[in-house]
Amino acid sequence: MTTIRPLSDALTGTSVDIPHGETLVSVDGLALRFGGNTAVDDVSFDVGRGELFAIIGPNGAGKTSIFNCLSGVYRPQEGELSFLGRSLLGERPDDIARLGISRMFQNIELFDNLTVLDNLMLGRHQHLEYGTLAGMAYLGKAKRIEVINRRIVEDIIDFLEIESVRKFPVGMLPYGVKKRVELGRAMAMEPKLLLLDEPVAGMNVEETEDMARFILDIREELDLTMILVEHDMGLVMDLADRVMVLDFGVKIALDRPSEVQQDPNVIKAYLGEGDEGPTLEDAAAAAEAHVSQEVRR
Questions:
Q1: Cβ distance 83 to 104 under 8 Å?
Q2: What residues have CB less than 8 Å from 108, skipping those under 6 apart?
Q3: Rounded to whole angstroms, how far apart are CA atoms 269 and 250?
């Protein structure tokens, strides 16, 4: 019988050699424009080691644009981005991934024709220290490294409770399970910073609760720093240590969840002028329902 290892034993590369709470990610004066349209306008924030930092805002507020800047997909016109004291400006996405930043995408970005196991193995590519010829021969060092990485992926599969579908092509799986696989592939990279872009978008209540449980378990076992973008206000308020709110690319609030919930500027960003009474969660519920319908289509 195979013994299931703790996630912290499988993913040893997630540890960070700085004190808990010290700045891991720093964003200062970030500005991103597309022609005459400003997606992000002079946004600054820091994320401490071990923190779960949430970014919220209406659709088009610039949340995913910040993720794209952090992961090297977009290059901002102004500002500074740093990770563990190293500037990310001008770095390629693959180099940023090697620094220890991985990402769960808003829209599922898996290979439907590959199995769950093979999709997760793709997350190990930067840990495969052998060339093409050695991989083709599958002897010596290549075989040893493959076995080690396969064991790590199997540990992640056990952790995410998807053993029963591990050899199924991803295209055959239900939506909620695909989102777990997406999370698993991001974890397979052994990140020091995990970017979660709408991890529960389009999910039903049971799927959302499962994903929240996995996020909490990952944080508890690995003390992993996370930045979360999400429309589900209940999830954000329950999980996040701090919340930053964007509106049309501008930061309008950054505080503890309990404070952000009561901020009149935040409620106005969701409801508009002249609306009174509903809370932030009420305001976001309609937006989340709309997003869920679009994702499910």
A1: no
A2: 175, 178, 179, 182
A3: 11
Tokens 């609030």 correspond to what residue?
253
* Residue 199 to residue 229: CA distance in whole angstroms: 8
Two tokens, residue 293: 């319908």
Instruction: Read off the DSSP letter of residue 115.
Output: B
Bridge-partner residues for 38, per DSSP? 33
- Residues with Cβ within 8 Å of residue 106, at least 6 apart in sequence: 64, 197, 198, 201, 229
pLDDT confidence bin for 295, thresholds 50/70/90: very low
Q: Which two tokens stand for residue 77?
A: 């016109």
Rama region for 188: left / alpha / beta (φ>0; ψ in -120 to 50; rest) = alpha
Cα distance between residue 270 and residue 232, in whole Å = 13
CA atoms within 13 A on the CB side of 279: 10
Q: Tokens for 173? A: 């799986």
Residues 6+ apart with CB under 8 A from 286: none
C-alpha span between 243 and 228 (Å, rounded): 9
Q: Per-residue confidence at 131, pLDDT binned at 50, 70, 90?
A: low
